[in-house]
Amino acid sequence: MRNIRLYGQFLRVAVLGKVQYKADFLVGIVSILVLNAVNLSLIGILVYNFHTLGNWDIWDLMFLYSFWMLCRGIYGVFFWHLSDLEEMIVSGTFDAYLVRPASPFLQFVGKDISYTGVGDFLVGVLGFILAGTQMELHWHIGQWIYFIVCVLSGAFIQMAVNWIGASLCFWTTRSGAAMSIAERFTTLMQQYPVNIFGKYFQIFVTCFLPVAFINYYPSVVLLNKTGDKPCTWQYLSPLVSFLLLLIAALVWTRGVRRYSGTGN
Prior knowledge:
The chain contains 13 helices and no strands.
């Protein structure tokens, strides 16, 4: 409970710092909206020329993209600065977290928030409303609960993947390249349905780097694309997010224990 209250105080300070620069916030939000509009336009051009992508039409893809934006928005607001760990370790500023009477991880994740996540989340909400209206989605309460749980799970999966990547800094000092590759790969995967890729690629993003559980498998379930024989593992996004967070926490803990500073 103490850690939760402490994290809340960290976030409060971070928010107060951000609101001092209102113009920067507004420009950032507008730029995110424009960038996502461009991405959606490119997807629209593909569907216009090919009609469907792996039996997903334009509104299915809008739903898929919006689902990812909701997950990415939550991740972006609270955890986007995970990539800062590399610079903090190189400069030695991470050492300050180790001498304070509070969890180094809470201090680190609570040090900042990102307004870009707000823009992504707004895109997700608008896209979801538009796609849901066009597809005339009528969900029962169980589907809404599953949707909310999977959005949170998708955010935590993305957070866990980047948390593991950032924690590699404790061994390698530099992990920016690995995180950049993972980010680009994840971004590509969330914009298109996994079933348009080859069998082995689908296995990779399901079993080894399970980013398909961020938005693809929940969307398959929610849009009734499971077929006559739905597979149990298509419902496993919450479990996958829990396991990934557990692995990420273990990697972080081991890394902090072996960390001895860079001498700067």
